[in-house]
Amino acid sequence: MKKILIATSALVAVAVAGQAQASEKIKLSVGGYMEQWAGIASQDDAYDNINAFQSDTEVYFSGSTTLDNGIEIGAMIQLEGETSTDQIDEQYLYVNGSFGQFRIGEGDGAAAAMGITAPAVGPVGVNDGDLSNWVSVAAMPDTVWDDGDAPKVTYYTPVLGGFRVGVSYTDSSTAKNNGSAGVSASPATAGQNTTTGMPVVSLGVEYNGDFDGFSLGLSAVGEHKGSGEWFSVGTNVGFGNFTVGASYGVKADDYGLTETDAKRADDTTGFDIGVAYKMDAASVSLSYANGDIVTNAAGAGSDIDTVDLGLAYALGAGVDWKTSLFWFDSDGKNGGADNDGYGAVTGIKLSF
To answer: Considering Cα of 14, then 16, then 17, then 19, what sign does the dihedral take?
Structure first.
């Protein structure tokens, strides 16, 4: 696999270097978003309340240039507005052309980027992990997992007849890319670490088509690494002002066990289903998800149901007011804790 990646990178570099350079250097533009939320929640007395105010902010720096041969080269850098760890969320270089797109750097794998889930417009979706910002749950229902933003190479094919394929490869070694000049930095502190153990291969196939009166989106995605694998299928169908969708995912993890171990944990499974309606500046959605979640080799975890009623209203260009009314019921298994409750969250999202 490494030889293939080296050869592919060399071909792209030769194709780019063999053409005249663009007349001006790349200039970065600024974008991103800011989300500020306020909410209340009721849950079991055994759990303390979580902060009633939550926020999420990222600033994007991006820029590109088109060479005389028509090939576009660009960069994306995403800066976290608040974090206690890595200040940079994603950063990668991309090359676009008639051959498709290559990316190298840190970002989502192809599977996570191409996965489709049920539609939701509120700030607390049933399948995006935000419920844990407001109540105490051991794990969230999920149908599209991701190994993270470790350094990787990704390739997306051109769109052919509505179909597109994407594949990502993350090596198993440790990056050493930000030590001082001439100094070999320690793997524990230098750069952004990749996965330990086996490499990660991420694959996705998607279809998007518009027909007379309706649209259709389909995805089949998955990843494999040394400790296990996951796969997911999803669909969204749009007709008139409505969008309906659903997804299903399975995640298997060996937790260090072998095939000869007497007790092995079951797979984690999840599904969601939802409907959204948009009329002018207003949107509303109703979605449901269930997750049968396993968190360790002993089979501990939870069986969790969540429901979210989402509301969104565009107050102006790049200014959206969003609200969620949610309910959840998490039943622990094999040592996992129970919790259930409900809540409401509202706030503003700025896109710039």
So the answer is: positive
Q: Is residue 186 part of a domain?
A: no
Angle at 255 between CA 290 and CA 234, to 5 degrees: 35
Cα–Cα dist 298/292, whole Å: 14
CATH number at residue 119: 2.40.160.10
Report pLDDT digits (tens) over 298-315.
Answer: 777 889 999 999 999 999
Give the torsion sign (CA, 152, 157, 158, 159): negative
181: in domain: no
**Residue 99 domain-assigned?**
yes
How buried is residue 6: exposed, middle or buried, by Cβ count under 10 Å (0-12/13-18/19+)? exposed
Cβ density class 244-272: b for 16+ within 10 Å, e for less: bbbbbbbbbbeeeeeeeeeeebeebbbbb
Q: What is the pTM of this model?
A: 0.84
> Quick one: tokens of 224?
């494999």
